[in-house]
Amino acid sequence: MESVQFKELVEQLISGAITPEGKKQFLEYVDQPQYRAELEAILQEAMRTDKYEMQVTPAYTEQFIEKLVEKMHTVEDTPVRPMYARWKWGWAAAIAVILLGSATYFLLQRPVAPVKAPLAITDVAPGSNKAVLTLGDGSVVTLDSAGNKVLQQGAIAIRQQGGILQYDVQEQAASASINTLVTPRGGQYQLILPDGSKVWLNAASSLRYPTAFNESARTVELQGEAYFEISTQKTGNGEKVPFFVKTGKMEVEVLGTHFNVMAYPDEQGISTTLLEGAVRLRNDNMNALIKPGEQGILDSRTNAFKVQPANTDKIMSWKNGIFNFQDNNLAEVMRQLSRWYDIDVVYEKGIPDIVFEGRMGRDLKLSVVLSFLEKSGVHFKLLDERKLVVTP
Length: 392
Hints:
392 residues, alpha+beta, Jelly Rolls, Phage tail protein beta-alpha-beta fold, 19-stranded mixed sheet, 8 helices
């Protein structure tokens, strides 16, 4: 009878109908070896379908359940998200959706090729909060998530706490100096500018900015990728002070908005995706106005703008701790992994023509990510911990 009740609780967990009391009962059951084994069996069976043969190891299943239990213990009384209709892995896929970035749910567009042998590599940890700050006088400060630091530049206090760098302007500065925040491959960082605007820097990116803005314009220079939430600043006459993001070939003019800019040199163009407000893109004598939900792309080959509807959920996934590989080919996926795991990717015999669809948490170790990618028939060898060889 208790086994039936346990299965009912699992179904409620998946559908989103589980109550706080039901979650408590579920966790009590899972602490017992017989029900832990029953849940492992459910996962193993659910991940074996005709189209997607998820050959998971017992060790992975155990890790999966541990993450589920940890999530349920730390997020009390949070409504459980129901199973997405497009994924049809049954219970296992639904539980993965509940975990979001903390677990893995992955789908391939083509039938899965059998894996010849398990992936055997030295593991690589995911990226973390780390950056290097270069001050106006040339001095360098290493930043991470640990501890607190306070630096004083004249009337400006620079505070680092928990992966966030913040500028506090205590009084009107006589003159502003230029600071540069750089995230390495395998790093990310959050910055609060002197005007209160918030910036999230993705891996392998840099932002150059003044320690104080004037009333005519606020200008920063970006390389790589960043998400911006711009605060409103007004002059003494009540006029809004515009905000500009320069990326070398393109300039983004902002009046107060939320947007993402990707300007990596190894991508085919510079893209700006707007979530709120309005921005204008400029390049030489051309310009383009984009609206919320749109993306403006400056093609590096034609040097022309293109405005198109944007998949904002996919574009913002990096900031939310998720890899979203929807419609990405292998080369695009590898560029993301190269930046986040600080690895160099080499193709042994050209780039296989594979298109992926699905999501994975950015908190996963590299071996877990590669194990899922191998379901497409492509294989990997990790050499010297930082060189990844892609083989057919």
